[in-house]
């Protein structure tokens, strides 16, 4: 696999070239659940609530997978910046080993304890509970393949070459779009059909990655396993993974609180989250771009270039998130109606988007700053900040529910995002910028 040198060239061109394919891949990855919900939306709010409820635990899997994806991505990009090919192979080997262990364990847990996980949410709707478990159980093997697809995408990003990941993701989503209505409506499998379609699409993606990767994803037996590198990956990936796990667990607890307001509220929140992911897809592309860009330049000791890259990514992200915030406030109804036609659900989802809109710029600052700190090998810093303010959402929600009702939960989410963005930018100004500005 050819490495693209991110330590050379005009910064904005390099950042954009890196970010666009990641944005595309992120869009396609998110689209799996999005397409499932759009097709299932024709079955009503109960179907959307079923997929939405189970997706919290699917999200937990992504959070756990971040342990290996982030750690491997950082170390591979550093090794590439240092032009150490042997280390690159050893880190990829270590990442593959961790991934297969984590993937098998998580898939097994979902199958064995899925009913208990759904029961915890106290959905108070037998149909939603049954369909949630069915979707979750069939998503278990999907997660095993998705874990590898995400790892492969991140490794390609470290090489600075995201076109292959984008192409394979595009094929996967087309397959999912074709299969969803067939399994949901033609075979009359409902929510279960959506899960089966996504499983087939992810298996095909996995096979395409293996076939078209020029051998970089094959375990290199000549190099073997360096357990020190396994520990390095876990050490680097753990803070961010732990942050995301707590973030997801917080969302699960919030979902339990939301469930008290009925299945319409659950469906509305999940629809709101899917629409909000339109912003996240682009910003996550900037996160991946600045992380890979920073990683290689950090390895090459080009610190001034790291700062220029951060500023460039931040400007792009703020402009885009401001645009999306305006859409969330004034044009939310047409987006919501893509998923559902039930008036109560539409009203709740609209309130969610209008409140969350005010935190979009700050979420962008948080995400881009996170990418910078991850790239220089300090993911524990944003992790601590995120953990504190994400957990704070729960007591804030319980307090704000009294005067604002369901909207109090949305307000608590927005406030915590604003605080994280402000603190991470101040941290960049007082720590990172000051430390690397004059280092040659």
Automatic annotation (TrEMBL):
Keywords noted in UniProt: Antiport, Cell membrane, Ion transport, Membrane, Transmembrane, Transmembrane helix, Transport
A GO-annotated cellular component: plasma membrane
Subcellular locations according to the entry: Cell membrane
Top-level division of the source organism's lineage: Bacteria
MF GO annotations: antiporter activity; xenobiotic transmembrane transporter activity
Membrane topology, as annotated: Multi-pass membrane protein
Protein name (record): Probable multidrug resistance protein NorM
Annotated source species: Clostridium uliginosum
Lineage: Bacteria, Bacillati, Bacillota, Clostridia, Eubacteriales
């Amino acid at each position: 696999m050819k490495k693209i040198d991110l330590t050379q060239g005009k910064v904005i061109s390099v950042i954009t070239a890196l970010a666009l394919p990641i944005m595309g891949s992120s869009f396609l990855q998110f689209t799996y659940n999005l397409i499932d919900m759009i097709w299932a939306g024709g079955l009503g709010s109960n179907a959307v609530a079923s997929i939405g409820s189970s997706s919290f635990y699917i999200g937990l899997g992504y959070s756990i997978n971040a342990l290996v994806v982030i750690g491997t991505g950082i170390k591979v990009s550093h090794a590439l910046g240092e032009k150490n090919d042997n280390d690159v192979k050893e880190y990829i080997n270590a990442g593959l080993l961790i991934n297969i262990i984590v993937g098998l364990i998580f898939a097994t847990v979902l199958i064995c304890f899925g009913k208990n996980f759904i029961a915890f949410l106290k959905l108070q709707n037998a149909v939603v509970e049954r369909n949630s478990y069915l979707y979750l159980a069939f998503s278990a093997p999907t997660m095993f393949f998705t874990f590898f697809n995400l790892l492969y995408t991140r490794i390609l990003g470290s090489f600075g070459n995201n076109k292959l990941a984008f192409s394979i993701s595009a094929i996967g989503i087309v397959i999912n779009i074709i299969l969803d209505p067939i399994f949901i409506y033609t075979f009359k499998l409902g929510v279960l059909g959506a899960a089966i379609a996504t499983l087939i699409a992810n298996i095909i993606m996995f096979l395409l990655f293996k076939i078209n990767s020029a051998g970089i994803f094959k375990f290199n037996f000549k190099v073997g396993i360096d357990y020190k590198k396994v520990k390095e990956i876990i050490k680097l990936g753990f803070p961010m993974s732990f942050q995301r796990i707590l973030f997801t667990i917080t969302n699960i607890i919030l979902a339990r609180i939301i469930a008290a307001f009925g299945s319409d509220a659950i469906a509305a929140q999940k629809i709101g989250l899917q629409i909000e992911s339109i912003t996240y897809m682009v910003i996550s592309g900037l996160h991946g771009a600045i992380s890979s860009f920073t990683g290689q330049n950090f390895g090459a000791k080009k610190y001034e270039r790291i700062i220029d890259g951060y500023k460039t990514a931040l400007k792009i992200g703020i402009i885009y998130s401001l645009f999306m915030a305006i859409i969330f406030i004034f044009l939310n109804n047409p987006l919501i109606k893509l998923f559902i036609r039930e008036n109560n659900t539409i009203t709740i989802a609209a309130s969610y988007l209008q409140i969350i809109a005010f935190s979009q710029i700050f979420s962008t600052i948080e995400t881009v700053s996170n990418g910078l700190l991850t790239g220089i090998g300090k993911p524990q810093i944003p992790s601590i900040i995120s953990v504190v303010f994400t957990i704070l959402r729960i007591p804030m929600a319980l307090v704000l529910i009294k005067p604002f009702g369901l909207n109090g939960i949305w307000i608590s989410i927005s406030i915590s995002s604003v605080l994280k963005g402000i603190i991470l930018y101040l941290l960049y100004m007082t720590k990172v910028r000051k430390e690397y500005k004059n280092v040659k």
